[in-house]
Task: structure prediction
Amino acid sequence: MKVDFDSQQVYVVGGSTGIGLAVAKRTAALGAHVTIFARRRAALELAADEVRAVRRQPHQRVAWRALDVADPALVTEVMQATVADLGVPDVLINCAGRAYPRRFEDISHEQLAETLRVNLHGCWNTVRALLPYMKAHGGVIVNTASLAGLIGVFGYTDYCASKFGLVGFSEALRQELKPHNIRVFVLCPPDTDTPGFATENQTKPPETRAISGRAKVMSADAVAEALLRGMARGSFLIIPGVDGRLAALAKRLFPGLVAAVMDRAVRSIARAGRTERT
Result:
């Protein structure tokens, strides 16, 4: 399946840093007009400069809009104004997300609610606001979930709930929008070297570190490249990296083995704790 970004309108939500910024730069390098959305104005201005620097042609438009995806009324207002000003997106890429790994007992109702508002409701809100426009001529929607949307991981109960939900949302949405010539993809990256990942590392329980410590951390650029390759292949579920794909395959075919490996990592932390106490 050919995906041609030349002169296409690309909206990247969560486009000021990390995977979103990497995707914005790659699509601009392929000739797209790019609009990035995020909460912080300063980060948006810097990111827009980076995107402009890699445009294929100087006439390509690069714009930014401040947006909190967790506020449905604001999302509708900003998206309506952006469409009126810049045009209907041919491609919507949802990359906004957050994670604060902690043990289940340490996750407050407030953290759970905020995680769901950003990671799951945020995608719902942007799709809801833009779908009436996109249905008129078709397009592409990409929702960024996580490998933790396919495999439950110690310390990520609220995050996994949001990302598993996002995978299901995307799968159902794909069926509904196919008659309208709108293709839906879901991106499930493994651990990726982004500012958000650095924030996660500040609250990770030791068991979480033990489970994920052996996995390779991908670069945001590598994830963006894998996304574009997956879109070109027409793959609904896009899992960047060999390690991530093998983990997802093992989970599907040998779930007991994957659980045993993670349980072993958790037990190793418990044994280390007992040794320290004695």
The first strand starts at residue 9 and ends at 13. The CA atoms of residues 70 and 121 lie 6 Å apart. The mean pLDDT is 95. The beta strands are 9-13, 33-38, 62-66, 91-94, 139-144, 182-187, 192-193, 218-219, 237-238.
